[in-house]
Each structure stands twice: as structure tokens, then as C-alpha cells.
Amino acid sequence: MQRRKKRRVLQLDLLIKNGTIVTADSTIKADLAVKDGKIMAIGQNLKPEKGTEVVDAKGKLVLPGAIDGHTHLAMPFGGTISTDDYYAGTRSAACGGTTTVFDFVLQGKGETMVDAIKRRDAIAAPDVAVDYSFHVGVCDVTTPELLDSMEDAVKYGVPSFKVFMVYDFGVDDGSFYQVLQKAAKIGALVGVHAENRDVNNVLVKQYLAEGKTDAWWHYMAKNEDVEGEADVRAINLAKMAGTSLYIVHLANKQGVEAVTKARDEGYPIFAETCPQYLYFTNEVYKRERGRDFVCSPPMKGKESQDAIWAGIKRGDIATVATDHCPFTQAEKDWGITTKDGKPGNFTTIPNGCAGIENMYPYMLSEANKGRISFNKAVELCATNPSKLFGLDHVKGDLLPGLDADIVIYDPKKNFTITNDAMHGDTDHTIWEGAKLKGYPVATYSRGNLVYKDGEFLGKKGDGKFIKCKPLKFTGPCL
Ligand code: URP
Ligand code: ZN
Ligand code: ZN
User: Fold this and answer.
1) CA 263, CA 254: separation in Å to the nearest integer?
2) Fewer CB atoms < 10 Å away: N or C end of the chain?
3) Which atom of ligand 1 is nearest to the CA of 166?
4) Rounded to two decimals, what is the model's pTM?
5) Which regions of the chain are under pLDDT 70?
6) For 228-260, how does the pLDDT look when each residue is reduced to its tens digit (9 = 90+)?
7) Could you give the percent of the chain with pLDDT greater than 90?
8) Domain with 224 in it: what CATH number?
9) Which ligand is nearest to the CA of 193?
10) Which structural domain, as residue segments, surrounds residue 131?
């Protein structure tokens, strides 16, 4: 008996047709099919079936959802808690085309890394509207057990850590070195907030004694050299420990040069910068509300900004992330009068700004204006973070089998950023009035439409914790 050949049934949930599919390394006109939250196929003339939702993306770009590798949601910091909780922050992320966020867990004194992650996840899981993972901000490795607990975090699916060379909860160089040594053994990546704490403290004292209290002096006390020296030292420590290093929120020329040099020598040194350093300079601290721009590291001079853009174009900056850490204007006003009613100064302003909804739109707008390619914007905001943080088995690209985290981008839709048009809980944005060329018009998180034409359509708690793979980088592979 002759067997009838079975027709392959695709059973698609969603078919995005006629778009231009842009990934880090290709640009093609094609259709993209989604089934069960995964990308099922990319090809020409894919046909819908009964029940398939068809979206016409003619004239639009179809991109991987962005991965924001650096957020601080509901974080106790600067005498308060950052304004956006996990729902507000991820809602805002989705509306800016970001489909995964990496939030920071700050380890408590005596707390193991996994306990810190679980403590934070209990707050995040019920709230998140897009997928998420964590980096652990290491604060205490004073016992062998605490240091060894980094390995348990890697097994738990969190293989990335951050050490702070600044702030009172930051670590000293000895602890930093031990964290690097441990990371080399267990397949982890260490990120670093590089600013010279001692010099910063001295400058703060001197400026305050001279009555220099406004936001400009925040910049001066954390100037180019204060950051650059720490970048160089951090790279040296990583070289000595024989491991990789990820410099977060890089904002100065000397640091860019140090990263370039180390990479040219073959070391696995990676750098992240943030849109605020690419768009603003230290001039913002001269504004009437300069305190709204207080973040660490602060925005630097034009020379540094130019060096960062050059580093991006050369390939020496691996990722762009937001460092989203918003505070209300009333909290920023603690720089004038503290919450206890005392005279304030630049050190009493909570450090951080909102940006989670602005990263992908800004970088894509710069691409649309011709400064970088769209492929480069995707690489910086999606593909490289996924590779660096061990997510590339599920996210960061548009390939069959990966999560259907997709952004549809209209290159013709112009957009002026206003706080009213943002979807977080913050009462102001440093990006107010910035004009973007092109804007995301739809975001899908694992195939679910979570944002369309200015409206958030996702659900609180729908985001999933993503387990990341162990990490090992032997050279400047990205
Ligand atoms: O000003 C900032 N960046 N606040 C958040 C904490 C940090 O250092 O990343
Ligand atoms: Zn930092
Ligand atoms: Zn940060």
C-alpha cells in the first residue's frame, strides 16, 4: 500500500510579513513566523494558517528585543528607593523595545550570593512584565564561604557579578582581586563600577569646605581622571588574576583608551556605556536643575563623549545599557535641602537617572540618522549583552528556536521624548525634549504583544527568570 506523504503543518501563532529583518550581522527582507513563544521560521512568502495572526511590517524593521544589561529597580540607594519597581520598570522597558532586563542584587553583609538572589527574586517575580535575570553586586567576601558562594550563584543561573570600587558599600582592591580570581575558576564574568573612592572622598571634602555645593561639583569630584585611574587599575587587576572584566557604564576617554589597549593586547576586556554619556556632556550640571542629572559616573566633557562614540565604531565598546535608577525631583532636591531639613549639597542627591525606555529608541535613532548602522545598534543593545551574560541560547538574535522577543520599528515615525509619554513611575526625565528619528511601534515578549503604538499591553508577573550559562572569555571575542 502506498503511503500518503504527510504535509508539514507549521501551525503558526503569529506571522510578521514583508518586514526588513535586522540582526547584528544581516539585513534581509523576509517573513518571520512564531509558534509557542519561539521563532519558528524566517523565510520568503511564509503562509499563514487558519487562526494565525498576520502583521504587515512593510516599510518597518523587525529587530530582536533589546537586553538591558544594567538596571536598578526598586533599589534601596541614596537614602531612598529608586522610583520604578519591577512592574513600572519592566513596563517602561517593554514600551521602549526592551524585552529582557538584568537587575542588580546588592548582597547584604554576611549574605550568600544565592540568598541575595532569592531575596530579590521574591520581590521581582510577581511584578516583572518582561523576562529578567540578575547580576550580584558583591559587597562581602570576607569569609571563604561567602566567596565560594559565587559558584552556587553560577549554578543557579547567575554567572555575572559587579564590584563597586566606589561608594561606602564597595570593596577594596584585595576583595576585588579575590572575586576576579574566583570568577576565573567558576566561569563567571565580573563587572566593575570604576571610580577612585579615596580621591573622590578627598575632593568632596575639599569642595564642600570651599562652599562648592551644587551639581557641577559632583562632576568635578568624579572627574575624568577619577574614573580613568580606576578603569586602568581594574584592567590591571583582571590581567593579574588572568580573567575577563566587564567595565560597566564607561564614561571617560582614558578608560576607553585603556580598554582599547588591553583588547589590542588580546585581553578579554569588555566595556558597557550608556545613552546618557553618548547624548549629554558635563554641561548639564550647569543647568538650573543640574541635580536631576546627578548619576555615577557623571557625564563627562565632549572629548570623552567623542572617545566613547569612536570606541563604539571601532568595536571596543561591547554593549549599551541604561543604568536605569530613577529618583523623583523631590528626592533630587535633597541637594538643596536634605530630607531632614538640613542644607543639602551634591553628595545628598541620590545618584541615578531614568532611561530604561530610551535606550533602544535612542540608539536606533542614531542609526537612522546614519551615525552607526542598524546592525551595530542591535549588536550593542541585544546580541552582545546576550553573549556576554550567557543568554545567547535563548535571546539576543532572530533565529529559529530562540524566544520570539521582537520589536517592530518604524523608521519614519518621529518622536519627541516627554515624561508624559513614558510608561514608568518617574516624575521627570533627563531626556525631555530629545528628538528621535524613528520609533518602536510594537514589542513582543516570547510572542506576546506587550506594547503597541504608545500603549503597554503586557501583564504584571508575565516575565520569566532566565537562567544564564556559565561564562568563559579567553580573548576580546566581541
Ligand atoms: O548613579 C548611578 N549609576 N546609580 C546607580 C548605582 C550605580 O552605581 O550603578
Ligand atoms: Zn555603578
Ligand atoms: Zn548602575
Assistant:
1) 14
2) N
3) 8
4) 0.97
5) 1-10
6) 999 999 999 999 999 999 999 999 999 999 999
7) 98
8) 3.20.20.140
9) 2
10) 65-388
157: in domain: yes
Count of structural domains, the chain? 1
Evaluate whether residue 223 is within a structural domain: yes
Cα–ligand 1 centroid distance for 105 (angstroms)? 13
pLDDT score for 2: 54
To test the pocket of ligand 1, the residue of 169, 219, 295 to mutate (highest count of ligand atoms within 8 Å of its CB) is: 295
Ligand 1 pocket by Cβ (under 6 Å): 72, 193, 295-296, 323, 325, 351-352
74 within some domain? yes
